[in-house]
Amino acid sequence: MGDTGEAVRELPEKRVTWAELYFDLIFVFAITQVSGLLHHRHDPVGIAQALVVFVPVYWCWVGTTVQANIRDVDTARDRLGILAVGFTGLVMALAVPGAYGSRGVLLGAGYWAARVVLLLLLVRIPGVWRGPYGVGVLVSGPLLVAGGLLPEGPRVLLWALAALCDLAGPVVFRNKLAKVAYHPSHMPERFALFLLVALGESIVGIGASAAAVRLDAAELVAVSAAFTISAGLWWQYFVFAADAMRHAVTVADSRRDMVRRVFQYGHLALAASVIAVAVGFGETVADPRRSLGAASVGLLYGGCGLYLLTFGYTRWMMFRSVATTRVVAAAVVLALAPAMVRWPALAALVTLAVVLVVLNAFEHVWVARAAAAAAEEVAREPAGEAVGAPVVGGPV
Length: 396
Known about the structure:
The chain is mostly helical. It has helices at about 20-40, 45-70, 75-95, 105-120, 130-145, 150-170, 175, 185-210, 215-250, 255-285, 295-320, 325-340, 345-380. α9 (about 215-250) packs antiparallel against α10 (about 255-285). The longest helix has about 35 residues, at about 345-380.
């Protein structure tokens, strides 16, 4: 596509396989484990530790998704390969609670094994060693295992280095990846499903907290507000952004760059922010009358602010335009955060829910008016003339 050397032929539509959906179930558990790690300690150090653990979990899922995107994986060999990677993901998930204790080596070994399996699945592709899959086997996997042998401080640093190596791989090998023919319909669907898994953790955060306490009026209002926030985050992506992302990767001059920037990197931030919000729910729903500390507000409001700001990044990467409404909403959320430290948790939840409802309502009206204006323009155009691109994704 374009002048990047990417394949120009149109690929047939590729659908998600049952093996991939089963594979995702392991990462439901893995995200729950990362959420539990962050819940246990959510000061700045704890957030850094959770993020360093989350990156290899996420990158294991990304590697499997890319492999399934560029190949036909609906075969016995590849189904077994996906299941094998799923088992290594289960091992990683089991290691997460003790990642900074006695299970550090187990986490690293699980990740390294996953990268070896993925490389073997792609071994027939010439030069696959000299790319991101080779980095996982030769660099980041060994670094994670070695980090598991070190004390907590050096372990975090070595694991952070491993994460940076993985994340840098698609950039370092950008020219090599230009030859990859990505299926544009499969990639958006897979990453949307991963975000849906992360959003499911927010429901767990609400339900697990509420189920353990007496449900009086305050708790029920807190549950309602938290659910509204979760649904608002879902609405932001699946009503407004998902179609825009599918459109962007379909028409992109460089699908490789769109996949890297919007999906691999952008969805890392989206999923991480949703996990932060989910842990924030666990800190607020159970006792909505108490005042929140700075750490809990940071998770709830900081996570929501990051989620909205990430759409500003993805919108710019896709269309070189500013997602004004979401950037403004993110600024409002982050500006409100300091005051929420002194307010009861219930007030913090309700305030955030109101911001998201207003944002979604405003964007709904904006999209409806833009669509109506586009329809009027079409009606005025003489038959057979081009009328420009359709309204896709509204303000995202």
